[in-house]
Amino acid sequence: LQPLFKMSYSCSKVGDPHPGQPYKGGNFRAFLPDNPAGLKTAKLLKKAFERGLTFQIKSCNGEERVTWAFIPHKTSWDGGKARNGYPDPHYLHEVGTIL
Question: Which residue ranges does the record assign to the Deltex C-terminal domain (predicted)?
Answer without folding.
Answer: 6-96
